[in-house]
Amino acid sequence: MKSVAVKNGLIILAALAVIYDSASAQSPPVAPAPASLSFGVVVGQWARTEGPYIININSVDVNGKLDANYGNPKPLPFHAAEVVQEGNGLKLLFELRAGGYGGSTYTLNYDAASDSLRGVYDQVVVKQKFDVIFNRTK
User: Which of 8, 32, 62, 80 is most buried per CB count within 10 Å?
Assistant: First the structure.
């Protein structure tokens, strides 16, 4: 009797394995998550295409906080500097409160194809916005 119960149990387990295999074979494949850029790709020196303006990004932590400064042409601290994931890309946000800047901001997107930072400089003191491009310096 014990031998029959063991055999029945093995038959049931074998049947369940076949059902499981056929069900998983019919499931649609799971699409891989889209590739996203690492925050570290923005570390470096970036020169604005017009003017002597430089953004130096020394490092970035896992939360996106940037150790960065601004050169015009002397180095100035950023009040805030961070990078965030936006879709498959990266958005960088910088705020300047040093003398003459009064909270002016750069909102830039990393363009992987051209290895550049592109976006808008909002100069709040003169109440103007400028389209800007920063290229990585070698």
Answer: 80
